[in-house]
Amino acid sequence: MNKDLEHLKLLVTFHYIVAAITAVCSSFPLIHVFIGLLFMLNPHGFAGDARQAFPARMFGLIFFVIGGAIVLFGWTLAAVTAYAGRCIKRREKYTFCLIAAGVNCMHMPIGTILGVFTLIVLTRHSVRQLFKAKSDVV
After folding, report:
1. Cα separation of 128 and 124, whole Å?
2. 68-72, 90-94, 120-124, 133-137 — which is least confidently predicted?
3. What's this model's pTM, rounded to 2 decimal places?
4. Which of 20, 36, 40, 90 could covalently link to 63 via disulfide, CB atoms 3.0 to 4.6 Å apart?
5. What range does the domain containing 98 cover?
């Protein structure tokens, strides 16, 4: 039992660390978002020719949409990871924690490591009983 509590405490810490790393790394495509905005908002293109404005705006839109999607996905993954860590700490929402661990497995390499170890720890019968005991009390 004491070993399970120690493993859960470590998982919580690592969830917060991975969430922070994910949020920071997924912020790098903000550069693409700003470049896209620069191209979209420049009325005559960079050549000064009005005929070049449409391709430049289209190029900017592509940069903006793809960069924004990557940032949004990364920040969402970071938020889900941090919230899963919080739920593990409180020993609640067992199914959500399992799903978050599975989703983290797609985030290579650190998310995969975290997801696998989370799945290993959470599928233990004794840990499942800790979550169940917490939900019975509330």
Report:
1. 6
2. 133-137
3. 0.84
4. 36
5. 2-137
